[in-house]
Please model this.
Amino acid sequence: MSMEEDVKKAAKTRTMWRRKLDPTQIDEYIHRHNTIWPELLDFIKEQGVTNYSIFLDDNEVFGYFEHENIPALMDQSNLPTQLQIDWEESMRPLAADKISDDLGTKRNMQLVFYVE
Model:
């Protein structure tokens, strides 16, 4: 299999997103994830999401997770649930862009290199 084919295959099972935080809200962002809503955690697991991690670099967070079929999970016909919308609305004041319209969704980064 070529490197390009490896990347395409890997992109179907893993993804990453990023968001800039208000630098004054980083501690609150960490606190909220340390006390994540139990129903949101259950929802993430029920969706089949695994290996979900969020990394912090200065005032930017990067989320990474895996799923057996990322394209299906991210399909536009899968509108965000009220739970996802509520979480995003509660987190919006912590973001650098407080007027974002990504209610329950995030733009995923493109995978360009992968080695198993």
